[in-house]
Amino acid sequence: MAKKEIATPTGALEALMKMQSQGLGNVVGAQIAWLESLGDIGAEVAEFVTDRIKEDVKFQHQILECDDMDEARSLQSAFIQTAVTQYQAETGKLTDMSLKALKVPHD
Question: 48 lies in which domain range?
Answer without folding.
Answer: 25-101
